[in-house]
Amino acid sequence: MNYGENNMSKIVITNFLRRCIEYADSSIARKEARSEDSAIIAEWNAYRDYTQYALDEVEKGDLDHWIERKSALAQMEISMDDLDHPSRSDWLSAVISPRPLALVSTRNDGKENLAPITSVSVVSNSPPLVVMSLSQSRDGTLRDTYNNLKANGECELQFLSASMEAAKDADLAGTVTEESEWSLLESDGPIHPLAVVVMRCKLIEDNPLPEGAVARLLVLRVESMVVPSHTPPKDGLSLLCQHGMDRLTPSPEDWGYIATHHRN
Q1: What is the rounded (10 degree) CA torsion for 156, 115, 177, 148?
Q2: Would you call 113 helix, strand, or coil by DSSP?
Q3: Could you check whether the bond before residue 190 is cis, i.e. omega within 30 degrees of 0?
Q4: Which pairs count as long-range contacts for 250-254, CB under 8 Å and 24+ apart, including other chains?
Q5: In what order do the strands lie in the sheet with 154-160?
Q6: pTM
Q7: pLDDT band at 253, cuts 50/70/90?
Q8: DSSP run (H or E) holding 13
Q9: Are 189 and 182 in contact (CB under 8 A)?
Q10: Which of 38-47, 154-163, 180-189, 250-259 has the lowest mean pLDDT?
Q11: Which end of the chain is more exposed for a tag (fewer CB within 10 A), N or C?
């Protein structure tokens, strides 16, 4: 399979090499302006030329085989009923992944609540509908997010930038606390300063899940969105995601392939 020029690993590498060249150019200019040792300047020029050569090789595709990822293929079948809960969760999270992480902000009686949720998905474009699954705590206590939505029927789904700072805040927002989760962050809310997109939503339906599942499936209508530009990006946005069970990571993280068959 040809992954083409959308290989995100390749983009990261080429951007890094370009920055190295820019840094070398500025360093050489400073050293020449200060009339520094010509031998040191020659070493910087050699470094700059070598980096340019490496960049040219990567851009031409000569080194694509260095960064191509090998994928394991399906070989065995396992029954989900034979797995315990942690193993089942590990497999499902590994396959349906990465999933964008939404900081769901709700409120009730003047108290702001914040919760990191990854079980969110768009299920309809017109009307704009999103579904969100909310589990209970181990003792059967319903989430504050669920109680707040039932009380006033509104929330914001806040999708954060793919940054370490955002990942740390998302982790902190999952802390059990009697206070507002915003008090754990260096922000007063209700909108996180690293939010890339905010979906303002209304609760439309609250449904139980079948087969004894304890989670509730909520249908939300997206009333409005706070976005970074008027034009939606064709390649998607780089947002904080959960990859596997606990790993938070940027997305898109790697190569991209454009699917077209669904349009036929």
Answers
A1: 50
A2: strand
A3: yes
A4: 250/162, 251/98, 251/100, 251/162, 252/8, 253/8, 253/98, 254/7, 254/8, 254/9, 254/69
A5: 111-117, 102-108, 154-160, 195-208, 216-226, 129-134, 120-124
A6: 0.72
A7: very low
A8: helix 8-33
A9: yes
A10: 250-259
A11: C
pLDDT in tens, 177-191: 888 888 888 787 889
The DSSP secondary-structure symbol of 111 reads E
Mean pLDDT of the chain: 85
Identity (one letter) of the amino acid at 165? E
Tally of CB atoms within 10 A around 259? 6
We find that the CATH architecture of domain 86-229+237-253 is Roll (2.30)
Quick check: 119 and 133 in contact, CB under 8 A? yes
- Which has the closest alpha carbon to 78: 69, 70, 86, 87? 87
| Bridge partner residues of 243 (DSSP) | 247
